[in-house]
Amino acid sequence: MRRSIATVSVSGTLAEKLDAIAAAGFDGVEIFENDLVSSPLSPEEVRDRAADLGLGIDLYQPFRDFEAVGPDALAAGLRRAEHKFAVMERLGARTLLVCSNVSRDAVDDDELAAAQLRLLAERAAAHGIRIAYEALAWGRHVDDYLHAWRIVRMADHPNLGTCLDSFHILSRGTDPGGIEAIPGEKIFFLQLADAPRLAMDVLQWSRHHRCFPGQGDFDVAGVVGHALRAGYRGPLSLEVFNDIVRQAAAARTAVDAMRSLIALEERATAPATAPTGFAFAELAVPAPERLGELLTALGFARTGGHATKPVELWEQGRARILLNATAREGTSLAAIGLETPDPGGAVRHAEHLLAPVLPRHRAPGEADLHAVAAPDGTELFFCRTDDPAWRADFSRPREAPGGEITCLDHVALAQPRHQFDEAALFYRSVLGLRPAARVEFADPYGLVRSRAMAGPGDAVRMVLNIASVGGGGAPWQHVALASTDIVATARRLRGLTLPIPANYHDDLEARFDLGPERHRLLRELGLLYDRDEHGEFLHLYTATYGRVFFEVVQRIGGYRGYGTAGSHVRLAAQHDGPYP
Ligand SMILES: O=C(O)c1ccc(O)c(O)c1
Ligand SMILES: [Mg+2]
Questions:
Q1: Where does this protein hold Mg(2+) (predicted)?
Q2: How far is the CA of 40 from the centre of ligand 1 (A)?
Q3: Is residue 272 part of a domain?
Q4: How far does the centroid of ligand 2 lie from the alpha carbon of residue 165, in Å?
Q5: Ligand nearest to the CA of 101
């Protein structure tokens, strides 16, 4: 499929945009009028530059407020169009996008709109140009894609077709299934954008919050599927208006955009293979002693040391933590190991999605590890489930002790605000995780936005957090360990857990009637509690080491959440540190 993107979707001057778009591997661009008008390059220079970069100019846009108007406005519109056709000929662009009229002067008359669009198409045909009519979600009288299609059908001109835009369709909650009733050759263009579900004015929503497919809440792949089944064979073109993207580095945005298209095509065809579990979490530590004490208290044992690197392996059940004593600064979560039946295939898939593959510095005889870097710098290692070769790199490996901690439940990563959507798309596409709804909770110094994502069978769960407080905010990353008996774990951890205020337990007692005995135990051990329609959740947090802390969780029944109801209590207590 041809991959295109509108110039509005990346930052910079028109020349910078074209460079970044070409470098990311796109086939074509939609030239936004503002980008051309403000460019010192002539249309011929833009055409040549795009051609040199291997980019086609697939569309010119937008042409506004043309149809369903009185005679004077029509004459002015046709005059304006002739000027734009001349520019398009100089650019070598063959399709003009016409947005449905948003003016108060537009009249509610489909026959008039059709007759005038037909006239425009006749004029365009003389220049070899096609008109793609798009229903804006806030159009004065035409705000629905099927309405735009009815007008196009009524106008009945070979140079007039419709432009579908996933945002305008999905933001209005319209059923996209109707796309299949449009003959594929009458869909002249397909624009794709995702967005988070927000209850707000649709114009503001579109102009500021669109994002790349896979970053928001819309089923953009569904729209693509309908268009393909209708017989559409034109470009898949990204059109994103987004305040953060406007400020971001163009090259990085273009790669992110390309990743979203590749993943979208994949979703419309074969689903990605997801990891089957966590193999390990690797912490970079200045010195392993303090964390070693904590891990010992948690019931872990040091089961091996790396043959050639200052790395210790700590295990309990299938929970594995690597302490890598090469950190120059504080403790941080450096890498995540993911179990997968085919590590080589997983890395090739990640590479196909434009993930940077990490070079490995390995000694002869050591396992050839397959790893890629996530946008936040976290290294992701793919390991064989049945033959964890990386384990053989550790000298004197001992059996992992059994205990109530059985495996990693989830890993939570802090993301810079401007990379949150990029990270969500990355983890979603590269690891095949399904995102849950975004949630927000209060930090004493700001608001934290959070999005959880989980793979099939919840074998791998990740939580992405951004703190939108003064740039810095809560920087913590954490590893959540699944316990089959959190009361036992809590008893062993005494003094190493995050103190929870009595007010929390007073409130908990008001919200839930768990009986006096259970409430007393929760209070005594500093446990937090939550419940959903599937089951119960008990959890606690350890002290923080650099940027990292551990959470211990016990899921009872099929509880699906992450204890978010207690997050604001945790954040307040963490800011209160140091402790113990
Ligand atoms: O926000 C707008 O006006 C606008 C313009 C052109 C488009 O293709 C679109 O989807 C929105
Ligand atoms: Mg559009």
A1: 410, 478, 551
A2: 24
A3: no
A4: 5
A5: 1
Q: Show pLDDT as tens, one digit a residue, over the chain (580 residues).
A: 999 999 999 999 999 999 999 999 999 999 999 999 999 999 999 999 999 999 999 999 999 999 999 999 999 999 999 999 999 999 999 999 999 999 999 999 999 999 999 999 999 999 999 999 999 999 999 999 999 999 999 999 999 999 999 999 999 999 999 999 999 999 999 999 999 999 999 999 999 999 999 999 999 999 999 999 898 999 999 999 999 999 999 999 999 999 999 999 887 665 567 899 999 999 999 989 999 999 999 999 999 998 888 999 999 999 999 999 988 888 999 999 999 988 888 998 999 999 999 887 666 677 777 899 999 899 999 988 666 667 777 776 678 888 999 999 999 999 988 889 999 999 999 998 989 988 998 888 888 899 999 998 899 999 999 876 555 555 789 999 999 999 999 999 988 999 999 999 999 999 999 999 999 999 999 999 999 999 999 999 999 999 999 999 999 999 999 999 999 999 999 887 654 4
Residue 496: Cβ within 10 Å count: 17
- In the reported structure, the alpha carbon of residue 62 is separated from the centroid of ligand 1 by a whole-number distance in angstroms of 7
Residues 243 and 323 in one domain: no
For residue 205, give its domain range: 3-267
DSSP 8-state secondary structure symbol assigned to residue 293: H
* Residue 446 CB contacts under 8 Å (≥ 6 apart), including other chains: 467, 468, 469, 470, 473, 474
Please name which of 115, 87, 74 lies closest in space to residue 31, comparing C-alpha atoms. 87
The CATH number linked to 153 is 3.20.20.150
| 410 assigned to a ligand binding site | yes
* Closest approach atom of ligand 1 to CA 168: 10
Measured from the Cα of 134, ligand 1's closest atom is 8
Residues lining ion ligand 2 (Cβ < 5 A) are: 165, 191, 239
State in Å: Cα 97 to ligand 1 middle. 9
Interface predicted TM-score (ipTM) of this complex, two decimals: 0.99
**Gap from CA of 135 to ligand 1 centroid (Å):** 9
Edge-to-edge strand ranges of the sheet holding 528-531: 434-443, 446-454, 461-467, 405-415, 477-483, 548-557, 535-545, 528-531
80, 114 Cβ separation under 8 angstroms: no
Q: What is the CATH number of the domain that holds 392?
A: 3.10.180.10
Q: Is 536 annotated as a binding residue?
A: no
Residue 421 counted as an annotated binding residue: no
Say yes or no: 202 and 283 in one domain.
no
Instruction: Specify the DSSP element, H or E, that contains 453.
Output: strand 446-454
Q: Does 281 lie in the same domain as 205?
A: no
Q: Within this chain, do residues 296 and 426 fall inside the same structural domain, yes or no?
A: yes
Pocket of ligand 1 (CB under 6 A): 61-62, 97, 99, 134, 136, 165, 191, 206-207, 239
Q: Is 89 known as a binding-site position?
A: no
- Relative orientation angle of helices 220-230 and 250-268, to the nearest 10 degrees: 60
Question: Does 239 belong to an annotated binding site?
Answer: yes
Residue 28 in 3-state DSSP?
A: strand
Give the total number of structural domains in the chain: 2
Tokens of 244: 């953060």
Same domain, 259 and 283: no
